[in-house]
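Try it yourself: sequence plus nicotinamide-adenine-dinucleotide, in.
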Amino acid sequence: MTGRLEGRRCLVTGAAGGLGRTFCSALAAEGARVAGLDLADLGGTGDAVAAAGGRLTAVRADVTDPEQVQDAVDSAAAGLGGLDTVVNNAGVYPLVPFEATDFAQWRRIMAVNLDGLFLVTRAALPHLRRAPFGRIVNVASAVVWLGPPGMVAYTASKSGMVGFTRALASELGPEGITVNAMTPGMIATETAVATGVTRDLDRVVGGQAVPRAERPEDLVSTLLFLVDEGSSFVTGSAVNVDGGFAKH
Ligand SMILES: NC(=O)c1ccc[n+]([C@@H]2O[C@H](COP(=O)([O-])OP(=O)(O)OC[C@H]3O[C@@H](n4cnc5c(N)ncnc54)[C@H](O)[C@@H]3O)[C@@H](O)[C@H]2O)c1
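Structure, out:
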């Protein structure tokens, strides 16, 4: 049986764990060739992709460093034989009240969540242009609809990501490259638990239309829809996948 992404070549950033690892496995399970980019070791993701029947092309880079990003994206494209899909998933989300946020923390959040988005997308574009069509999916957050406390810098960065998505969609539409965002709700990944954002999980689940905790797998069908060749008329959107908490 051939998967629906047979022949596709996908790069996922922030792929060492959490949502990024699930995305790599899901894309590979559909037959795509997958590269994962991260600062951290990608061995666990390599194993997960192998279990899904694929082979991960692993590239290490800091998404805030222009030269590292250029090299990593080019070597991912070389490893995959080109590139048609980019999932911008690398991100940081410290929980810190606004007045306790120092300038260095603000800059770091903007650097990873926005500079990284800019650098990876810009480095990938020449490769996407050589593909029959292109798909860019940006992993924002349902915080853009909600504006929760303790996440002013993060919400500003993810809202910037949604604006980036809309404006870039306008530029790339004529070239057959779509640009969309997904806005996940609260998912108890290791990082989310460690940063303390899930301390509110019961309240969030109680406010969702679907009253159970969200899992990384809940994003997969939306990701596969957005990267599908048939979704060429869906662009500039931010698809909310939060169990109906924000009801956006
Ligand atoms: N978990 C949630 O509740 C949730 C909800 C909404 C949105 N998100 C977003 O989803 C994405 C993934 O979150 P997650 O919960 O899986 O967290 P995670 O920490 O498991 O994943 C983020 C990955 O990004 C990598 N990364 C961080 N800084 C980097 C840098 N400078 N260069 C390269 N890689 C870097 C990390 O090493 C990590 O592997 C993030 O963008 C996050 O903002 C998460």
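One thing you can check immediately is this: The first helix runs from residue 18 to 29.
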